[in-house]
Fold this protein.
Amino acid sequence: MGLEATCRVRFGKKASEGKAKLETADLFFRGAFRLQIPFKDVKSATAKDGELVVVWPEGEAAFALGRDAGKWALKIRYPRGLLDKLGVRPGARVAIVGDLPGDFLKDLRGRTNDVARGRPKKDTDLVFVAMADPEDLGRLAALRAALKPEGGIWVVWPKGQKVFREDDVRAAGPGAGLVDVKVVSFSDILSGLKMVIPVAQRKAGGSPRTRS
C-alpha cells in the first residue's frame, strides 16, 4: 500500500511519536514501542477527530493521523486486495442489492463509476447481493438474468449464523442455473461466495437447463 506517516500513537498507558506504516496485510508502528497489527485480527478500525482507532485482541491503539485517518481506516477494513479477489476490474458494471457496508461501496466506486443500487442493469459484470435468510436465495434466478454470460453473483451473508450458511448458498445454485466457484472472507463479519453461469449454458445463450 505504501502509506507512511510520522505521528503520535497511544496504546494502553503508553504514548510515543514514531512512524506508522500500512503494508499489504499489516499496520506497523515504530517508536518508543513497536506494534504490528495484522488486518485479519482487527475487530474495528475507525476514524474520529483526526485519530485512527484500531481495536484488535491485544488492545486498542489510537494513531493521530489528522485528515488521513479516514483513508487509513478504509484501507485496513477493506484492503485494496479485496477488490482484486472479488474480481472487480476498473470500469466494470457492478450492481449492489441489499445492505452492504458503506465503506465497501466507497472503495468500490473508487474503481468503477458504473455502480447500480437495487435493480442490476442489463449485461452486468458483477452483482453483490446481501442475504441473511434462505428465502432470499429465490432471488438468484432473476439476478442471473441481468448478467453478462461471463459475469458473476457474489452472495454476501453474516458469518456464524446457523439460519443461513455457505451450504445453503451452494445448494441453491443449480436451481437458478448457477455454479459456485469461489469463497472469500468479505470482512471480519461477512462471508462471500461467487456464483457464475455454467460454461455450457453460456454457449447455449445463457438459459438454465430444465430438469425432468
User: Anything to note?
Assistant: The chain is about 20% helix and 40% strand. The longest helix spans residues 69-77. The radius of gyration is 20 Å. The longest strand covers residues 147-158.
